[in-house]
Design goal:
Elements lengths: L3 E4 L2 E4 L2 E2 H8 L3 E5 H14 L6 E5 L6 H9 L3 E4 L2 H9 L7 E3 L6 H10 L3 E4 L2 H13 L4 E8 L21 E2 L3 H11 L3 E7 L10 H21 L3 E3 L11 H4 L14 H13 L4 E4 L3 H4 L3 E12 L4 E5 L8 H5 L5 E3 L7 E7 L8 E9 L6 E4 L20 E6 L2 E6 L4 H4 L8
Parallel strand pairs: 4-20, 5-6, 5-13, 6-7, 7-8, 8-9, 9-10, 9-11, 11-12, 12-13, 15-17
Antiparallel strand pairs: 1-2, 2-3, 4-14, 14-15, 14-19, 16-19, 17-18, 20-21
Helix pairs in contact: 5-6, 7-8, 8-10
């Protein structure tokens, strides 16, 4: 579900009129619904209540400290993939001891910082990384908590850029090599504590079957590691898909994508709970997109209409530097007018100002025939929207707003041109 809907012909986030808001903030601007974020977080936690699972939010999805603070206050753990993300969690008031640190390329500086902060566990992705953590922990007079990320080689059925659980992906350790690596660590790496096992098979999954297959395949391995090394947790990753199409028209209340059958939270829970209950371990789930994806929209202004012999283009002030998913993943986002249109559709490309042919938010899209000066909302942009944005073409990053019922808060100011060159210098 989400909290974007038309009221009296104007699109609202919760009870805030987005047209009036955009007049005050300017565009492009990211707008997030507090209610939607908490609703998704709480519903997932309730669905997995029989496991007493810890919901550990994937910070990379949307890392603004206001959102991290909101989730921390409601008991979230955090899945981090860099020292910078850990720093954000700490600055947001999150608990480092509820952070699991993933990623294939942790640096010595990052590992030291994570150990100093007392994180819950490193999710290790190679033997080389494991040995590096052991050596760093030894130099600090500490023992480092680690869990190996297992690659279960399960087909997730998602975009090739966001599948992570196959043998050809860079993530994790091959399923067949896990037990030997734990045995080697127990003998040769005395400054490690073998604390758990982790997996994540991919993002934007729209069926329960891959989750079920992965959990069933890995469960015997988990039991063996528990018996031999007394591991205390099993993290099953994230990956539950969300709605990207027809969100306003359908009023859909669950998470799915395109023409796939709905993947409800109940269906997800029913697929994984029975096997996980038998393990008797602390279970961690690591959702990102599920929590914030449909909680955010990118509001942009139509600058010009350009009619060519082959196409009509609606040129907007939000570029691929603001939202790169359509260019990078061929991701679909519903695009709607902030002031509701009735019966004036057109087929057009929605393109930005970036000097790249790949700078588009939609191609050959049947959409409202908005004119210059009108506002559009790019929906389901809360995950991997702002967090993947950049200053490409020397464009300032957008502002971010958090809406709470009929109030709104500026949680990131818009960058200025002077911000673009802060930290740069010309040699003498």
């Amino acid at each position: 579900m989400h909290s974007f809907a038309y009221k009296n012909g104007l699109l609202h986030c919760e009870n805030v009129d987005l047209q009036a808001l955009a007049k005050q903030t300017g565009t492009p601007v990211y707008i997030y619904s507090k209610h939607t974020i908490l609703n998704h977080f709480i519903r997932l936690r309730e669905a997995l209540a029989p496991l007493k699972a810890e919901v550990s939010y994937a910070v990379k999805a949307c890392s603004n400290i206001a959102i991290l603070n909101l989730l921390a206050k409601h008991g979230a753990g955090f899945d981090i993939v860099s020292g910078g993300e850990l720093y954000r969690v700490v600055q947001a008031g999150g608990d480092p001891s509820k952070c699991t640190y993933a990623g294939v390329g942790k640096t010595e500086k990052e590992i030291r910082y994570a150990l100093e902060q007392g994180i819950y566990c490193f999710n290790v992705e190679s033997e080389a990384e494991m040995r590096a953590i052991d050596a760093i922990a030894k130099s600090m007079g500490l023992k480092a908590p680690v869990a190996v990320r297992v690659n279960p080689n399960v087909e997730a059925g998602t975009h090739k850029y966001i599948t992570t659980g196959k043998a050809e992906n860079k993530f994790g350790v091959d399923f067949e090599k896990i037990e030997a690596l734990y045995e080697k660590a127990s003998r040769e790496m005395p400054n490690l504590v073998l604390k758990g096992l982790q997996m994540h098979i991919g993002s934007q999954l729209t069926q329960a079957k891959p989750f079920y297959e992965a959990v069933v395949k890995v469960a015997p391995l988990v039991k063996s590691l528990k018996e031999k090394y007394a591991i205390e947790f099993f993290s099953i990753g994230g990956g539950i898909g969300i709605v990207y199409q027809d969100t306003l028209e359908s009023g859909v209340q669950e998470w799915w994508s395109g023409d796939e059958a709905p993947l409800t939270l109940n269906a997800y829970a029913e697929a994984v709970i029975p096997t996980l209950q038998e393990l008797g371990l602390h279970i961690i789930v690591e959702p990102g997109r599920l929590i914030v994806g449909n909680a955010g929209a990118l509001v942009t202004t139509c600058l010009y209409e350009k009619k060519g012999s082959a196409k009509t283009f609606k040129i907007i002030d939000a570029g691929m530097n603001d939202l790169i998913r359509p260019a990078l993943y061929q991701g679909y986002h519903e695009i709607v007018p902030v002031q509701q249109h009735l019966n004036d559709e057109i087929t057009a490309d929605v393109v930005g100002p970036i000097c790249e042919s790949g700078d588009f938010q939609a191609q050959n899209r049947v959409m409202a025939d908005v004119q210059a000066g009108e506002l559009l909302a790019i929906l389901s942009a809360g995950a991997y929207g702002f967090s993947m944005s950049s200053n490409y073409n020397s464009r300032p990053m957008a502002a971010e707003i958090l809406v709470d019922n009929d109030e709104w808060y500026l949680i990131r100011k818009r960058q200025s041109w002077s911000d673009l060159i802060a930290g740069e210098s010309v040699p003498e």
